[in-house]
Design brief:
Shape: globular
Number of strands: 10
Number of helices: 11
Helix content: 40-55%
Strand content: 15-25%
Structural class: alpha/beta
Low-confidence stretches: none
Order of helices and strands: EHEHHHEEHHHEEHEEHEHEH
Radius of gyration: 19 Å
Mean pLDDT: 91
Distance between the termini: 26 Å
Largest sheet: 8 strands, mixed
């Protein structure tokens, strides 16, 4: 069984889309299982359906309004292209006055999912041999949960995709089934272990970070940049632990893992959705996967 695993990474999901496009369309990989976290959860239903161009159009046209109905920050542009997020005091205050527990709300993302992933698409995928699994964090039970398309209705599964992407406290905290849920990346950033536990023997893993840390983060300029830096630090720890566990489990199950990291640092703030940059990242993901596989084929030829 072959599986495709896509990590979390916000706007950097565009890079993962380009890599996946090459693997599916150029290498003709047939995947039986798709497992995603956060932005990976957004990608995998369309990839499983073979709707690569559709999800490419979505990722290369999305903006802040596509995600947030209440955006908790403003984007300040500095010289040399550097961007910084700054708190939107009015928006955050309005959200707290409404009784929200988070700085912002992401209900526009929920609408986008329902408008682009139809019930007919859901039924076609659910009736197929392929399985699509999204990762969520159950904050009430302090547990990571994996939600398979085979086990839920259309509305519930759209909810799980949305919940998997909710990067609290910047996005919506969702109460479902009596529990509070948030971004799957808080517990399982790279769900390799889950793919192998579900029977995968070959796993292609797209990780939306560089394999080696190439930068030091800039000093925090405000509470929002401090929070994003803290989240990034914690998620980086979770990611590395997931990879170590995944390699260990793969060794015990004789499974093969093919890793695809970003070759360069794409952004230090994946909450900023820039259409121009995301279009560029999609293309670079495709080119990177092509180059990587070309180099692997050359090595195999030399070895033989």
């Amino acid at each position: 069984m072959r599986a495709l695993v896509i990590s979390g990474g916000g706007s950097k999901g565009a890079f993962a889309g380009g890599v996946a496009q090459f693997l599916i369309e150029e290498l003709d990989h047939e995947y039986d299982l798709f497992v995603g976290t956060s932005t990976g959860s957004l990608l995998i239903p369309y990839l499983a359906l073979g709707q690569v161009e559709k999800i490419k159009d979505i990722y290369t046209s999305v903006n802040q309004k596509s995600i947030f109905n209440i955006r908790p920050f403003r984007i300040k542009k500095w010289k040399h292209g550097y961007k910084e997020i700054m708190i939107d005091h009015f928006g955050v205050l309005r959200n707290f006055m409404r009784g929200s527990k988070t700085f912002g709300e992401s209900h526009n993302l929920r609408k986008l999912i329902k408008n682009t992933f139809s019930e007919a698409d859901f039924n076609r995928l659910k009736d197929s041999e392929k399985d699509v699994v999204v990762t969520v964090s159950n904050l009430s039970l302090n547990a990571v949960e994996y939600k398979s398309i085979k086990e839920f209705s259309y509305t519930d599964f759209c909810d799980w995709i949305w919940i998997s992407c909710n990067y609290v406290p910047f996005m919506s905290l969702v109460k479902k089934g009596g529990c509070e849920y948030a971004d799957g990346g808080f517990g399982s950033m790279v769900p390799i272990e889950e793919a192998i536990n579900r029977g995968a023997t070959t796993v292609d893993v797209i990780i939306l970070e560089t394999e080696v840390t190439y930068y030091n983060r800039l000093p925090s300029k405000n509470v929002f940049s401090l929070l994003t830096n803290m989240h990034a630090y914690m998620l980086d720890r979770v990611e590395k632990q997931n990879i170590r566990i995944g390699k260990f489990v793969a060794g015990n199950h004789n499974a093969i893992i093919n890793f695809y990291y970003t070759p360069t640092v794409l952004t230090t703030n994946s909450l900023i959705f820039d259409k121009k940059l995301m279009s560029k990242w999609w293309k670079s993901g495709f080119k990177y996967a092509k180059r990587k596989n070309s180099e692997l084929n050359e090595i195999k030829t030399l070895d033989s």
